[in-house]
C-alpha cells in the first residue's frame, strides 16, 4: 500500500437534521427576532487506518452524531455565555432577556448551550465536543482531526475543525 495516502470518513444523512429556534446578536447590539431553521449536520474524521482498515467506524460516528442532533431537535437554542443575553431558569420556565426584550419558554422546550452566541459556527463547535468522548474512547486511536459542518440555511455552511488530542 502507498504510505503517503491520507484517509477521511464523512457522515451525512437525511435524518442528521434538527429543527430549532434561535436568535443571535451581531454587529454589537443588533439582536435578531426569534426564528427557526432546519439545520443539517455532517461530520468528518481524518487519520490513519486502524486494524479494520477504518479511519473510524461510520456506524459509531453516525449514531453519536444522531444522538446529539436529536438533543437539539424541536428546541429553542439559548446561549449561556452571551455578554448581553441573560438566560435564567425560573421554576419550569426559562427566561431570556436582551435590553428591554424578554422571552419566556417552557424549560423542556429549551436547550441551554455553554456558548457565547448561537451562531452556526459555535453550534458546530459544541456538536464536535459532544462527539469527542466516542472518538477518544479507543486508547490506541491516532485520529487527527474532527470536522463538523452545520448548514443553517440552504447552501450556508459553518465548519469547525477540532484537533483530536493524542493519547
Ligand atoms: N457566519 C455566519 N453568518 C450568519 C449566521 C451565522 O450563524 N454564521 N447567522 C445569521 C442569522 O442567524 C440569520 O438568521 C441566518 O438566517 P437566514 O435565514 O439565512 O437569513 P436571512 O435573513 O437571509 O433569511 P432568508 O429567509 O434567507 O431571507 C446570519 N449570518
From TrEMBL:
GO MF, one annotated term: metal ion binding
A family per Pfam: PTPS
Gene3D superfamilies reported in the protein's UniProt record: 6-pyruvoyl tetrahydropterin synthase/QueD (3.30.479.10)
Pathway entry: Purine metabolism; 7-cyano-7-deazaguanine biosynthesis
Record's keyword annotation contains NADP: no
Catalytic activity: 7,8-dihydroneopterin 3'-triphosphate + H2O = 6-carboxy-5,6,7,8-tetrahydropterin + triphosphate + acetaldehyde + 2 H(+)
Top-level lineage group: Bacteria
InterPro entries linked to this entry: 6-PTP_synth/QueD (IPR007115), 6-PTP_synth/QueD_sf (IPR038418)
Cited PANTHER family: 6-PYRUVOYL TETRAHYDROBIOPTERIN SYNTHASE, PYRUVOYL TETRAHYDROBIOPTERIN SYNTHASE
Protein name: 6-carboxy-5,6,7,8-tetrahydropterin synthase
Organism: Gimesia aquarii
Amino acid at each position: 500500500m502507498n504510505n503517503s495516502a491520507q484517509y477521511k470518513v464523512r457522515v451525512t444523512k437525511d435524518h442528521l437534521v434538527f429543527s430549532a429556534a434561535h436568535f443571535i446578536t451581531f454587529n454589537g447590539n443588533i439582536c435578531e427576532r426569534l426564528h427557526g431553521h432546519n439545520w443539517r449536520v455532517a461530520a468528518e474524521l481524518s487519520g490513519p487506518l486502524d486494524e479494520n482498515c477504518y479511519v473510524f467506524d461510520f456506524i459509531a460516528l453516525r449514531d453519536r452524531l444522531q444522538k446529539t442532533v436529536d438533543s437539539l431537535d424541536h428546541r429553542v437554542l439559548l446561549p449561556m455565555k452571551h455578554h448581553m443575553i441573560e438566560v435564567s431558569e425560573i421554576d419550569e420556565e426559562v427566561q431570556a432577556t436582551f435590553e428591554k426584550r424578554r422571552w419566556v419558554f417552557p424549560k423542556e422546550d429549551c436547550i441551554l448551550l455553554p456558548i457565547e452566541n448561537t451562531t452556526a459556527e459555535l453550534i458546530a463547535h459544541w456538536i464536535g465536543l459532544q462527539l469527542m468522548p466516542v472518538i477518544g474512547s479507543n486508547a490506541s486511536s491516532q485520529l487527527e482531526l474532527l470536522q463538523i459542518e452545520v448548514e443553517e440555511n440552504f447552501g450556508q455552511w459553518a465548519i469547525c475543525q477540532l484537533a483530536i488530542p493524542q493519547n
